[in-house]
Design a protein that fits this description.
Layout (H helix, E strand, L loop, with lengths): L2 H30 L2 H11 L4 E3 H4 L16 H4 L1 H14 L1 E3 L7 H6 L1 E2 L4 E2 L6 E6 L8 H5 L5 H9 L10 E6 L12 H25 L3 E6 L3 E4 L5 E4 L15 H31 L1
Parallel strand pairs: 1-2, 2-5, 5-6, 6-7
Antiparallel strand pairs: 3-4, 8-9
Helix pairs in contact: 2-5, 9-10
Length: 281
C-alpha cells in the first residue's frame, strides 16, 4: 500500500471513529439528560446568533460557523439532530437587511430535518432602514411606481406573515454627517429616529396589537474577532428601545434614546475624571 493510500485509509478510520464517538455521546445525552439540559448543551455548541436571510438557503449547514458534522445524523442520530435544529431556530435572528420582500419566500420553504415550513420555526427577524428608504416620490407613486417610502411600508406588511409572538428588530442606520444638517451624532440619530417613527409607527402599532415583540436599534455594529483570528463585521444589538422600556409612542421612543445617550455620556465623563485623578495621585 503506497503512502497516499495509507493516508486515505487513516483519514477514513479517523472519521469512522469520530462518528462512533459522537453518536455514542449523543445517545447517552438523550438517555441521561432532560431536554432543558440538552438545550443548554446545544446553546454552547451553536455559534451563529444571526444569519443573512438571503444567503441562508445557500449554506451547506444551518449554522455556517459550526462544524459540518453537527448537522449529519450519522454523527448525532435523528433525535439529537432534530433537537439541535429546533434549538438553532429558537435562538437565531434572521436578518433581512433591506430585503423584506424575501420574507414570504423564506417562510414558505420547508426545513428538511423538521419537515415543516420555516414560517412555524423562525422566531426572530430584523431588517434595516436607511435615510434613502424614506424618500417619497409623488410623481412615481402616482404612476404606479412605488417610491422608496411606499416600498418600505409595503414590505413591512410581510412581517405579519411571521409566527405569532415572533420578535421583530428594526435596525436604523443614521445618515452620515455630510448627508445631515446636524454634525452632532446623537442629535443626528434622534432626528433620524423621529423621522422614521413618524412614517412606520402606525405599522408598529398594528404589529404590537397582533402580538409581535418589537425593538428598535440605532447604529449598531462591532468589529468582532473570533478565536480562529477571523474578523467579521456584525450587528451588536445594544440599547434596544422597546415598548417595555419606553412609552409606546414616537415621542416616548425618542426620549428613551436621548436618556440612554445622556446616561452613557455621564458614565464616560465619570470614568474619564476618575482616570485623571488616579494619574494625578
Amino acid at each position: 500500500m503506497d503512502l497516499m493510500s495509507q493516508r486515505i485509509m487513516s483519514k477514513l478510520l479517523e472519521v469512522q471513529q469520530s462518528r462512533m464517538e459522537c453518536l455514542s455521546v449523543c445517545m447517552a445525552m438523550q438517555k441521561l439528560l432532560p431536554r432543558e439540559l440538552r438545550d443548554m448543551v446545544f446553546a454552547y455548541l451553536l455559534f451563529e446568533d444571526g444569519v443573512h436571510a438571503r444567503l441562508f438557503h445557500y449554506y451547506d449547514t444551518l449554522d455556517p460557523k459550526a462544524p459540518r458534522h453537527y448537522w449529519n445524523k450519522e454523527f448525532t442520530g435523528d433525535a439529537t439532530l432534530r433537537e439541535l435544529t429546533e434549538s438553532w431556530y429558537s435562538s437565531v435572528r434572521f436578518d433581512f437587511d433591506r430585503s423584506l420582500n424575501f420574507l414570504p419566500h423564506l417562510l414558505a420553504q420547508v426545513d428538511s430535518t423538521l419537515q415543516c415550513k420555516r414560517q412555524e420555526l423562525i422566531r426572530r427577524a430584523s431588517f434595516k432602514i436607511l435615510q434613502c428608504d424614506l424618500d417619497m416620490w409623488l410623481a412615481a407613486d402616482a404612476n404606479g411606481i412605488p417610491s422608496p417610502q411606499s416600498l418600505l411600508l409595503k414590505n413591512m406588511e410581510y412581517l405579519f406573515l411571521l409566527r405569532p409572538g415572533a420578535k421583530v428588530t428594526i435596525i436604523l442606520e443614521s445618515p452620515l454627517p455630510w448627508f445631515s444638517e446636524s454634525k452632532n451624532l446623537q442629535e443626528r440619530q434622534s432626528h433620524f429616529l423621529a423621522r422614521v417613527l413618524d412614517i412606520i409607527f402606525p405599522t408598529l402599532v398594528r404589529l404590537q396589537q397582533a402580538g409581535y415583540s418589537l425593538a428598535v436599534c440605532i447604529d449598531p455594529g462591532s468589529n468582532v474577532q473570533f478565536q480562529d483570528g477571523q474578523q467579521i463585521w456584525r450587528y451588536e444589538l445594544k440599547n434596544l428601545i422597546t415598548p417595555g422600556n419606553a412609552h409606546f409612542s414616537c415621542k416616548g421612543f425618542v426620549e428613551r434614546f436621548l436618556n440612554v445617550g445622556r446616561d452613557v455620556e455621564k458614565d464616560c465623563n465619570i470614568k474619564a475624571t476618575t482616570s485623571r485623578m488616579m494619574e494625578e495621585s
